[in-house]
Each structure stands twice: as C-alpha cells, then as structure tokens.
Amino acid sequence: MTTNDAVTGHLVTDEAGAEWYRIDRVERMEPFLMTVVSDTDLWMFVSSAGPLTAGRVDADHALLPYETDDRLHRAAGITGPVTVLARTVEGRRELWRPYDRVLADGCTRAVAKRVIGNALMLEEHNAAWGLTFRMTWTPAPSHGWVRTAEVVDVSGDGADLELVDGLLDVMPAGVDAHTEQVTSNLVDAYKRSETGRWGTAAVYTLQSKISDRAEPAEALAATLVWSVGLPEAEVHLDERVVAAAVDGRDHEARGLLTGRRGSYLLRDTLSVPPGGSVSWQLVADTGIGHADVVD
Q: What is the band of 1 on the pLDDT scale with cuts at 50, 70, 90?
C-alpha cells in the first residue's frame, strides 16, 4: 500500500476558522456510525458509507426511516441521500454516482466532522472527471436539517453535467418507528407526497392516521422538504426518476404521489466553471402543523 492509499486522519481549519477532524481514504475502513449533534431536539445518525436517519425528539419523529446501525450501513441507494451525475464525452455518456453502494474505479472518499460535533461532511473525488462531490449536514433549529451539496472542479477544465440529487424514502409525520419497521408496506399505502404552488417545497403526510377502526383519524402534521440554489430544477416525488436518469430517459414530474414511498429529488443540468463550483441546499423538517405548512 502506498502512502496515498493509506487511511489518514488530521485536523483541518475551514475558511471561517472552524476546526474539523478529517479522515481521508475512508473507503478503506469498515463502515462506522457517526452522530451530528445540535442544541435543540434535532438528532442524526450517519453511516460513513453515506446513508443516515434523522429527525426530531426521538425515533418516532424521523425524517428518514429509523434503522439500527448494521442496516443503516447497507441502505445506500435505498433510503437517504442519493446523487447521479452524468456527462457526455466524445459522444459517449458516462455516469458517476457519489456515495453509491459500490465505489467507482478511481474514486476516493473522505469524511470530516466539526470538532464541536454540529456538522458533518462527506466527500468523494473522481480523478477521471477532475471533480469532487461534497455534502455537508448541519442543524438549523427553526428549519430542521440542512444538506449542502457542492460539485467542485479541481481540474481547471469545467464541466457540463446532468444531475439528479436528493433524498429517498422521506417519512411523513405521524409514523412511529415500530410501525415503520414491522408494517412498512402498510405504511406506504397511507403515504401522500405532493408539490404545489409552494416553489420548491414538497409536503409528506398520511392520508389518515393508521388505524383499523371505523372512526375519523385525521393526520394533522407533515414533513416538509424544500431547496435553494437550483431554481430551474424539476422536483420529483417518485424515486423511479433515479433509474430514468441512469438510463438517460425522461421522467414526468408529477405533483402528487400516493400509496408509495415519497422522495425529494431534484433533476437539473449543471455548468461547473473552470476551477469553480456549483452548490445547492436541501432543508427538511418534520412534525409541522398544516397551518404552518400553508404559511
């Protein structure tokens, strides 16, 4: 193993003066569990392989399905963050899926955590493309969890890319962890995901509370996901847009999805300037009252 292939850990300081602990070549380690802390009721558990679960208060108020760490390490491409990048070189279409289940040839990964524990960065570098993809998770007490994604050109050549990026299997408010883990197919039948005249926002709810009694059971809370930075992007609720992007096919963005897992996926094109970068943010929160969603 050469020096460049070795796992290394060291302290780094960002432009704002914050100190982070960074591990390079983390793909050479067995997956491990990390946390991101906040000074509110926001919680997050993250696998070094990329998947995560997060929410407010406890496991019964999750934004993404609550899993034990062994299952979380295997959840890439099933729940949580997903990214597909495509480019055309000499008439040939090429794909890159940062933090996918299988690491592509020539790619390396790193993770970094702010020393005080309230931010986590996961990074993948593609030497053949001359690009680095980076996602950073931070808590925002009044807005929920914020994911900042960035594509950085390190080759100096720039890049024109197709993009699908976002979150798979967003949980509606009102589903406790036991119900999701034991009867997830039943829970899917009650799910309602929709967009509307709310800009980039998507709302995830239950059609009604999950009950076998013949009585009204309104679900009066929602999960909300929205984004900034890609104003022209299509917002897709259906995870099948990922397969369409991989195949280079169109996929209609529908404003309502019922009876299936809901996702929040942005589809757009990116033009990364030589030596520059393009970034965007996703913001997600749960347990929001209907009146607050409308506001």
A: very low
Are the CB atoms for 282 and 167 separated by under 8 Å? yes
Cα–Cα separations (whole angstroms), residue 7 to 27, 30, 92, 153? 9, 11, 34, 24
C-alpha to C-alpha distance for 227 and 225, rounded to whole angstroms: 7
Look up residue 25 and give its two tokens: 């070549």
Answer whether 0.90 is exceeded by the pTM.
yes
CA distances from 12 to 17, 131, 243, 251 (A): 9, 21, 37, 42
CA distance 228 to 155: 26
Contact 200, 281 (CB under 8 A): no
Tokens of 205: 């709810």
Contact 225, 201 (CB under 8 A): yes
- Amino acid identity of residue 146, one-letter, is V
CA–CA dist 146, 94 (Å, integer): 29
Structure tokens at 100: 């996918």
- CA dist 112 and 33 (Å) reads 13
Interval 237-258: pLDDT, tens: 999 999 999 999 999 999 999 9
Q: What is the pLDDT of residues 72-116, one digit of tens each?
A: 999 998 999 999 999 999 899 999 999 999 999 999 999 999 999
Chain centroid, CA 75 distance in Å? 12
Residue 36, CA distances (Å) to 40, 88, 152, 283 in order: 12, 37, 24, 16
Phi, psi of 252 (to 5 degrees): -65, 135
Euclidean distance between CA atoms 224 and 245, whole angstroms: 24
